[in-house]
Amino acid sequence: MVSDASKKKAAQKKAAAAAKRGDKAASSSSSTAAAKAAITLSERTCTAVLTSHPLSRDIHIESLSLTFHGHDLLLDTDLELNYGRRYGLLGLNGCGKSCLLKAIGCRELPIPPHMDIYHLTHEIEASDMSALQAVISCDEQRLQLEKEAEILAAQVCLFYFPSFLPSHSHQ
């Protein structure tokens, strides 16, 4: 049985093919206007309304719509993520799982700023670590790199400005 989404995609493809055939007879000015419109079209567009309290640990988003290259992936959908729960996304290839996660990771959705988001964009090597341990280990690496950067910055500062050496006065 063919789903409504598949029927809609097929109808959109037919309409696009018909428009391409019609564009050949159209004037060059309309084709340049279409080219300008295509340039301004972004890869992913997302609209949503945060309906939960901004300081809440739970996230409730209503009227979520997600479009990828002009194709509607989500239309007027509700998204609810409760603190302490784990979620998984299941679906066919190309249905928008990764696109939704990227939109969340890039904060294109109205996620409150006090919430941390860790979005891993690629696979990691197989290990016995849990998903949480893998994310935390990435953060530990970031913290270690930041400490190294501070040490290097201090060394550069001391090299160029030796008169700013801290004085150790004991009282």
Structural overview:
The structure is a single chain. The protein is α+β, with helices and mostly antiparallel strands and 171 residues long. Among the domains are: 42-114; 131-164. The protein has 4 helices and 3 strands. A hairpin with an 8-residue loop joins strand 1 and strand 2. Keywords: Repeat. InterPro entries: ABC_transporter-like_ATP-bd, ABCF, P-loop_NTPase. This is ABC transporter domain-containing protein.
Q: Are there runs of 5+ residues with pLDDT below 50, and where?
A: 23-41
The arrangement of helices and strands along the chain is HHEEEHH
Q: Average pLDDT, to the nearest integer?
A: 76
What structural category characterises the helix and strand content? alpha+beta
Strand adjacency order, main sheet: 1-2-3
User: How far apart are the first and last residues' alpha carbons, in Å?
Assistant: 85 Å
> Radius of gyration over alpha carbons?
25 Å
How much β-strand is present in the residues?
A: 15-25%
Please give the count of helices: 4
Number of strands: 3
Helicity level: 40-55%
Characterize the overall form: elongated
Profile the largest sheet: 3 strands, antiparallel
Pfam family, one: ABC_tran
Keywords: Repeat
GO molecular function: ATP binding; ATP hydrolysis activity
Protein name: ABC transporter domain-containing protein
